[in-house]
Request: fold
Amino acid sequence: MRPGLPPSAPPTARDAPSTSSLPTPSCLGLDGFEVAAVIASEQILSPGRVLMLSSGGRRGDAARCRELGIAGFLTKPATPTELREVLSRVLDAPEGGEPNGELITRYLLKERPRTRRVLLVEDNVVNQAVAEGMLVKLGYEVCIAENGEEALARIGAESFDLIFMDVQMPVLDGVAATREIRRREGSARHTPIVAMTANAMADEREQCLAAGMDDHLAKPVRLAVLQDVLQRYAPR
Ligand SMILES: [Mg+2]
Reply:
């Protein structure tokens, strides 16, 4: 212990990590449900943060999951897409899991794909209409902000899976808006931001990335290119 520092308190349930857990119970000599029961009774994780990966589903598994507060259940092998989707559903919800407490299963992922919300920050009405048309066609819910300041207000009140950001806008431009979004997010969150600009110059791309954007698209944007970006940053 360094001088001047108070002795550290023993860890408590409150200090426990709130990240998801993928139990690997065999090394403990317990099955997954037994481990989940210990996690629940000892409050090792926040409620609704446990996902079960099982080598085979058995009758009654769903009921046991609900009893133990397990948020999701997948049989192995789970695909990377399934894992990513289950994790994002669990981690996006304040209490973990589905808002109505439903167990997330492969069936639920398939039958009820999540609506992805996109914020389109663009001052030109023609560009707004073109981009919105393509995004809706690809199955995304679109909100529009006409400049960076409007975008900051929207982001402060609701959450989005992806932001498309024009660079040149009145009031507050895309680069300044992005810097402010990243400042507010800190290390707690990272909403993907993709620049959509008329200027495909390399230095503009660098400027966008330096401000904290994740990618850059040159206008006019083609549907296939847009689809590719959506698949990368906010897959449905
Ligand atoms: Mg503009």
